Structure prediction request, 226 residues.
Amino acid sequence: AQTVTQSQPEMSVQEAETVTLSCTYDTSESDYYLFWYKQPPSRQMILVIRQEAYKQQNATENRFSVNFQKAAKSFSLKISDSQLGDAAMYFCAYRSLKGGSEKLVFGKGTKLTVNP
Amino acid sequence: DGGITQSPKYLFRKEGQNVTLSCEQNLNHDAMYWYRQDPGQGLRLIYYSQIVNDFQKGDIAEGYSVSREKKESFPLTVTSAQKNPTAFYLCASSLQESWGFGSGTRLTVV
Prediction:
């Protein structure tokens, strides 16, 4: 079974600075999706960024980018120019492409605090 | 607007009682899921359903039951057999790479 590990339960960053959240995963599959979700205090899950494993190019969405290292099974999230609104729980998630196994497997999350 | 509706937002249950959490989606997604969220535990899968009238156990199915009689609906029943039911419950749905999440139900046992 696939597992996702987020080794940083909490992180903090100064406003306008850059922070990197770590995520590693374990799988024997070669094709899959990886995601970062943001969960603010409202508890609504918000997709931040998605990466297809077959793509070598790292995904980028405005201030958010990933460092996808397939061989190392690592998928870190970099937030540039951090804003107060970035404060939230961040979850890394894995999704298999194998039929019947398309569920999302989540890590335990990293709580990000942004200091003014 | 398409989305996923969970109700109620807050739910209180007495020990020994069953309670049903509602999840409805109008996204025309085939698959639906129930996750449980506890502090420091992330989101853990309870049950999921890929088509109507079929569902599979997730990682923590004991003490829970589900049904999938309609594509739009996937209710979760927390039974008295669930020893520690106080948690935040999140419903989700998906169609290929597109996922949606409800706003959750906070269940408290009193």
About this structure: The two ends of chain B are 36 Å apart (CA to CA).
